[in-house]
Each structure stands twice: as structure tokens, then as C-alpha cells.
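Suppose you are handed only these lines of text.
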Amino acid sequence: MKMTVKLKFFVLLALGMLLLCGFSGRDPVEDMEEFIFELTKYTKRVEGKKYIALTFDDGPNMISTPLLLDILDETNVKATFFVLGELAEQFPDVIKRMAEAGHEIGNHSYKHLELPTLSKTKIASQLDYTNLCLLDITGKRPRLMRPPFGSVNKNVVSVASEKDMAVILWTIDPKDWLITNSAAIANKVIKNAEDGAIVLLHDAHKPSALAAKAIIEELKKQDFEFLTVSDLIHMDRGLEFGAVYKDSKGTIDKWKTSR
Ligand SMILES: [Zn+2]
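From them, the structure of the protein bound to zinc ion can be written out as follows.
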């Protein structure tokens, strides 16, 4: 079989990566898989289109999370879930369903604690337990974390950076957990929708799961495309571990630390 120039380039690149990984002591197979994933997966910006990411915190549970997953299936939208380790352990089948449907799963700590009040060791445990649990269920280690309550300080960012994770905040917060009317939640999101935005919702709150349908239907009419958070960030800036993002361009950078 004749190799195309492109294929030859790719094979050489792959060999180079394997060699480098050998010296760095990292798992070459895992690094290679991530590298190929980077090359092939991410969406390229199309002129005139708008892009947005829906994120859902505090799950999974057995009632509103599956309901939301049905809505995302029907509307063919990929979202990002920031899950709690202790709930992921209780409901592994829901996590498995999220992963199999192509949604992104991020780390929302193990027990929803206010991370800046903890020591660095305890912050690390909150991330590690959840990462291990998600790795065990899905075979993939999360690269994104969202601190409970959006509470960030230097220690939180520094631990995230040590674990090769990016810190994800949000652009639009409708305070959905205070609202029982799903149309009111949807309207708040639709009114504030903008290109590159990250929307904060809670799948533990049933009206928010129901609001997703109206949000998706209306914003699709307005030429928005829904992406996972990693995909959204890769399109505009690229995902950097230890950086803090509140939108696709990573508007907040003040907590960025060097390792
Ligand atoms: Zn939360």
C-alpha cells in the first residue's frame, strides 16, 4: 500500500511522540490517544455562527439527570456535567450514560465543600477521589473542574494545575436553583446568550432540566451551536491547565499560576 505524504507525516509524528513519551516517563499510549484526539475532535469556528456551552452542576441523580439526558438526546446537543464524586459513586450508570452519549464530564469536587477554606492536601483529595471515581466508571480522567459555589483562590488553582486541570467558571448564571418555573429559567438564559458564553445550570433541579429544551430550541433558531466546554474553549483559545475560564476566551486570568 502506498502511503500518502500526509499519512507519512502523521506516522513520523506518532513515532516522535512515542519516543518523547519514553523519555518523559509518561504513559505513551495515553499521550498518543490524547494527541490524536486533539488533532481530530475539536470544532472549527464558522464565520457568522455563534457558539455556546450548557453546563449542569451538582448531579448526577436518578430523576432529573436522566430526564435532561433524554432532552439532550432528542435535540442532539452535547453538554458538560460538573458532577460530585459522592453522587457519581452512587449513580455510576447515569455517569456511564452521559459518557456514552458524548457529553463532557468535569469534576465538581467530592462533597461540594467550599474549597478555599481547605488545606491544599484536602483540596487535592476532593479532586483526586472524584477523578478516580470518574476514571473508573468512564475510562477517562476529567480535564475540567468547577469549584463549588465558584469559590476560587490561589490554592485551588494551583492544585488544579498540578493535576492537569483547567478551572471553569461561567458567563451566564440565571440562579436557576431559586426558580421553579422552567420558562422563567429559559428566558433568563436566552436573553443573555452570547457567542463564547458558558451557561451555569443545575441538573439536580428539575425545572432546569426542563428549561434546557426551550433554551436549545430558541437558541438554535438564533444560529447558536451547542458545544462542550472543552470544544468551546479549544475553538477560541485552547485549553490550558491551571487557567481559569469564564467564557471561551478565558476572560479571568488573574489566578493563573506557574508550576
Ligand atoms: Zn455546585
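What can we learn from it? The pocket of zinc ion is lined by residues 57-58, 108, 112, 148 (CB under 6 Å). The longest strand covers residues 50-57.
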